[in-house]
């Protein structure tokens, strides 16, 4: 039983295969958080909370003269606001009289079969392999008619619990929501580190780890997107946790806009963990009868370290978030013309790239930025989604058919959410762009952002996308988004409340994506935002792969892909072999290494194939064959991080298939020295009792022996050289 209810409907225990999560509605109606950790039998753990009279921690009226009952230290599921819990609150309400307080009291609960969905927002869904269960706990605000429903989803086998919440105004007057996070949770005991993924454009998701103390650790975005700077996911783990051991909690936000995520110890050294829409620039007016839904957070607990935690996220996102025909189907090996030509292309150049690509076995040509409107650089044309037949030397229909006749699929780049001031769209509808009257707008890449909250903007974009896609043979779309958002203002009725706009923007993007996929369900969508600026779980609901970074340098990619791997499955990671020296870093890396690194993702090329040597062309053929042969191992297998960036002289990672019959280990030498000494790596994930042949040297040893004693490569690698080693089960 995944959801266990006891003590007259006041004790709630959620069980997954390896974890339990417990809450208790205490006699005063506070929903206490009692436990999240290793699986238990569901006994009441209230005795873990030792009540004391803490000075300067006041007592709510229900407690009467009992000075030991204080909201200021009790571990809670939905912390109150303005009534005596001085830690961070979760839902903040401004009532019609201007007061700002909320005390949430347990009201009722409901258990239902199946996962919950959230209107207009992505959430994990049920599959034939696993159906979730849902617990809904309703709390009522003590002095108003506001109700909050806490939603808990349990995927028992997957070791996943989800949280989301809904706020309902049941009163006669509007209320203003000033803060609505999706979750808050207090872990009563233990010290934790927080691992988060920070970065910048072209250098996303660098893993950082900090101890959580009284000062707290907080990440977030107010850029309108989930951002390059902080990914909307974090891990809390015991200070000694590593890949193979230790307590780890994951929190992954299913949302693509502004977010906050934090962990902070309180006066009792309890850790409050929160995640949700960033309260800055946020307010939401709820008219009588209206409901506000906060996005989903995916939680997982592992007592066996970070690798096991990542595995739970890889599986759940791959199986219960990614949708559509491309969820499991092998994705075509693509060639993208961006780094080959940038804006400087014509039909001849594209066909030259395509025919060379087809000859080498590449399966799809993606035509990137510059095929529409007036767009020979990034200063104009966005919004004018009309084919530039002059530049293309004919129609897109002709071009796409010609590519298909070469035996390849054809993909196209769009950046629907943006507008250039130098465009017919902007000249016709300047009010569609986000700008504040009387204030010169901030420009990013010299472009403005369309107000995606407006239905007329979305209608225009869907009509344009539909026109282009129904008049040419298009198999794939790269959906880009190339700036951060500010100048938040709307004069459009229904979207004019500025505090709502960032969120309504995100809902507008989801609505457009949903409408687009409903019309073109066969399209393979690749998400993108200047590379990985919107690499989040919510986007995976629409696009099963996301361009991981504009940085294609294989060595930088080692740490970017490492950071990405903590939550996101390899199948989601767009990764390409690009030119040498690399355009972003100037570094030269062997062609083979570039292939081996890109192969830990949705594989493709992004360079002019007519500029590479015959030997490299031969390597392209080999790489494509390997990728086809290894596809299911890479995309559906278990992923192991064997090293950490910056520690040691090489990076290594490994894939092991579900049956533990086949493994593949990749090593990239990142440093080198004169008179080199051999390196040695651990091997993971094999069946200890089975024998495996190592295809590097033919040695046959037991899984236990490979995993215990590890492996020494049979050659010295020069700097940036790579080695791929397969293990095949013999018995
Ligand atoms: C963004 C993308 C790139 C490319 C350019 C085109 O930066 O991340 O891959 O598509 O836009 O302008």
* Low-pLDDT stretches: none
Instruction: Report the C-alpha radius of gyration, rounded.
Output: 27 Å
Shape: globular
Structural class: alpha+beta
The portion of residues assigned to helices is 10-25%
Give a structural overview.
The chain is α+β, with helices and mostly antiparallel strands and 731 residues long. It is built from twelve helices and 35 strands. The mean pLDDT is 97. A hairpin with an 8-residue loop joins strand 30 (638-641) and strand 31 (650-656). The strands form six sheets. It has a nine-stranded antiparallel β-sheet. The protein has an eight-stranded parallel beta barrel with strand order 20-21-22-25-26-27-28-29, surrounded by four helices. Bound molecules: alpha-D-galactopyranose. Residues 338, 368-369, 378, 413, 480, 482, 528, 530-531, 547, 550 line the site of alpha-D-galactopyranose.
């Amino acid at each position: 039983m995944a959801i266990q209810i006891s003590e007259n409907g006041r004790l709630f225990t959620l069980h997954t295969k390896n974890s339990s999560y417990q809450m208790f509605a205490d006699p005063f109606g506070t929903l206490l958080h009692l436990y999240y950790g290793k699986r238990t039998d569901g006994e009441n753990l209230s005795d873990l909370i030792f009540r004391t009279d803490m000075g300067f921690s006041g007592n709510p009226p229900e407690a009467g003269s009992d000075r030991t009952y204080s909201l200021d230290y009790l571990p809670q599921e939905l912390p109150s606001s303005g009534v005596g819990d001085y830690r961070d609150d979760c839902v903040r309400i401004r009532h019609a009289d201007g007061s700002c307080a909320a005390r949430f009291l347990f009201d009722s609960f409901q258990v239902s079969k199946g996962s919950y969905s959230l209107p207009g927002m992505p959430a994990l869904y049920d599959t034939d392999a696993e159906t979730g269960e849902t617990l809904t706990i309703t709390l009522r605000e003590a002095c108003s008619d506001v109700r909050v429903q806490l939603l808990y989803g349990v995927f028992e086998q997957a070791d996943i619990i989800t949280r989301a919440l809904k706020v309902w105004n049941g009163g006669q007057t509007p209320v203003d929501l000033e803060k609505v996070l999706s979750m808050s949770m207090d872990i009563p005991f233990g010290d934790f580190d927080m691992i988060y993924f920070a970065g910048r454009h072209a250098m996303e998701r660098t893993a950082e780890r900090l101890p959580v103390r009284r000062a707290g650790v907080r990440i977030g975005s107010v850029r309108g997107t989930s951002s390059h700077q902080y990914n909307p996911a974090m891990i809390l783990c015991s200070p000694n946790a590593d890949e193979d051991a230790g307590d780890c909690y994951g929190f992954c936000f299913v949302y693509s806009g502004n977010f906050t995520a934090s962990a902070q110890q309180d006066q009792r050294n309890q850790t409050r963990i929160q995640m949700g829409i960033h309260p800055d620039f946020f307010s939401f007016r709820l008219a009588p009868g209206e409901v506000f839904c906060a996005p989903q957070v995916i939680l997982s607990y592992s007592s066996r370290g970070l690798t096991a935690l990542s595995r739970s996220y890889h599986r759940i996102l791959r199986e219960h978030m990614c949708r559509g025909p491309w969820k499991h189907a092998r994705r075509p090996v693509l060639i993208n013309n961006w780094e080959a030509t940038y804006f400087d292309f014509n039909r001849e150049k594209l066909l030259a790239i395509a025919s060379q690509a087809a000859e080498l076995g590449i399966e799809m040509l993606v035509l990137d930025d510059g095929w529409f409107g007036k767009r020979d650089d990034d200063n104009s044309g966005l919004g004018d989604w009309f084919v530039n037949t002059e530049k293309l030397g004919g129609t897109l229909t002709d071009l796409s058919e010609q590519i298909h006749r070469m035996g390849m699929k054809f993909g196209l780049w769009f950046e629907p959410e943006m507008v250039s001031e130098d465009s017919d769209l902007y000249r016709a509808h300047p009010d569609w762009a986000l700008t504040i009257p009387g204030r010169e707008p901030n420009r990013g890449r010299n472009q403005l952002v369309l107000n995606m909250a407006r239905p007329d903007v979305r209608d225009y974009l869907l009509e344009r996308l539909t026109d282009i896609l129904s008049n040419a043979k298009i198999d794939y779309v790269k959906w880009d988004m190339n700036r951060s958002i500010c100048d938040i203002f709307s004069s459009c009725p229904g979207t004019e409340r500025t505090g709502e706009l960032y969120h309504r923007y995100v809902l507008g993007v989801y609505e457009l994506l949903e409408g687009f996929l409903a019309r073109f369900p066969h399209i393979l969508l690749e998400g993108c935002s200047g590379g990985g600026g919107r690499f989040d779980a919510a986007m995976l609901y629409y696009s099963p792969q996301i361009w991981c970074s504009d940085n294609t340098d294989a060595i930088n990619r080692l740490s970017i892909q490492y950071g990405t791997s903590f939550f996101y499955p390899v199948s989601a990671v767009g990764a390409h072999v690009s030119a040498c020296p690399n355009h972003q870093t100037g570094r030269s890396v062997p062609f083979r290494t570039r292939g081996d690194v890109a192969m830990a993702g949705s594989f493709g090329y992004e360079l002019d194939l007519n500029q590479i040597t015959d030997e490299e062309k031969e390597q392209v053929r080999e790489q494509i064959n390997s990728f086809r042969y290894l596809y299911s191992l890479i995309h559906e297998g278990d992923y192991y991080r064997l090293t950490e960036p910056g520690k040691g002289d090489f990076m290594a990672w490994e894939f092991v298939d579900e049956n533990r019959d086949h493994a593949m280990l990749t090593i990239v030498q990142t440093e080198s020295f004169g008179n080199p000494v051999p390196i040695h790596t651990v091997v993971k994930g094999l069946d200890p009792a089975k024998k495996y042949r190592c295809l590097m040297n033919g040695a046959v040893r037991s899984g236990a022996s490979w995993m215990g004693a590890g492996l020494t490569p049979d050659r010295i690698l020069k700097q940036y050289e790579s080695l791929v080693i397969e293990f095949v089960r013999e018995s």
